[in-house]
Design a protein that fits this description.
By secondary structure, this protein is mainly beta. The protein is built from two helices and 21 strands. Strands 1, 2, 3, 4, 5 and 6 form a six-stranded mixed sheet that branches. It starts with 6 loop residues before the first strand and ends with a strand. This is Secretion system C-terminal sorting domain-containing protein. Keywords: Signal. InterPro entries: GH29D-like_dom, Ig-like_fold, Secre_tail.
């Protein structure tokens, strides 16, 4: 596929080329022999975000599937949350973009130590917003040079459009409620044991917990309520939701709640 996966402000063409019959999709679904096809070459117009998947058949031989994401117009935005050790004075993050790998043709990767993160005021967590949908990140203590005495950092971490990473515990799926909904509302809520699965999910989100929940809300990443139900069920249909990242807010009889992130395929 040409050009390489990227973002451009204006619509553009992507060319898939090869020796044989090309079978392809543009919505991220897996192509089959029933998918759209062309011989040797096909051009796809990128006027919105598209995930192109394709394979080639030549003389009875089928290639592996190639998958690439292309972007135009709106630049994807990712949110990175990080909880450093209490001994760190400040936190920085290096961001190596994967999808898109450039913005309007220019790479936007950061170099050591990367931008300084901002305190959220929530239980020692820091935050930064960057332009990416998928990236590799590396958190560090903002030392001026890498590999010098006093320089501390994590390994390279693959992330999606939102990540919560604790230096001690790694990536977590049950971030403190105060990160998302504000420090005043839920800062002192106790931690509860709740499991949601499968995650990512395409149809039915299942909830496993001994807590007697009375209702739930589903929120998008901006905090907008997408769905609300005052009756709780351990199996919630989410097939109608567009693909993306969401939160489910589970409420108990005392009006305490648990906030968990899930991904809709």
């Amino acid at each position: 596929m040409s050009p390489f996966p990227s973002h451009f402000n204006n619509p553009y063409q992507v060319t898939i080329s090869g020796n044989g019959t090309i079978y392809y999709t543009t919505d991220g679904s897996t192509p089959t022999l029933s998918s759209s096809s062309a011989v040797n070459s096909v051009q796809i117009y990128i006027n919105q975000r598209k995930e192109i998947k394709a394979f080639i058949v030549n003389g009875g031989t089928t290639s592996s599937i190639v998958s690439k994401k292309y972007y135009t117009s709106t630049i994807p935005t990712g949110e990175i949350y990080f909880k450093p050790p209490s001994t760190w004075v400040s936190s920085c993050v290096m961001v190596d973009m994967v999808n898109p790998n450039s913005i309007n043709g220019y790479a936007m990767d950061t170099f050591w130590p990367g931008p300084t993160m901002t305190s959220t005021g929530c239980n020692g967590w820091y935050k930064i917003t960057a332009n990416f949908e998928d990236a590799n990140v590396r958190f560090n203590n903002c030392s001026p040079f890498e590999n010098i005495p006093g320089s501390l950092s994590t390994n390279l971490i693959p992330v999606n459009s939102i990540v919560y990473y604790d230096y001690s515990d790694g990536a977590i799926s049950n971030p403190p409620s105060c990160l998302f909904l504000g420090t005043n509302e839920t800062k002192n809520n106790p931690v509860t044991l709740v499991k949601i699965y499968p995650n990512p999910v395409s149809d039915i989100l299942k909830i496993n917990s001994d807590i007697d929940f009375k209702g739930y809300e589903i929120l998008d990443m901006s905090g907008k309520i997408i769905n609300e139900n005052k009756t709780f069920s351990k199996e919630i249909s989410i097939h109608h939701l567009p693909s993306g990242n969401y939160f489910i807010k589970l409420k108990d009889s005392k009006n305490n709640f648990t906030l968990l992130k899930f991904i809709k395929k």
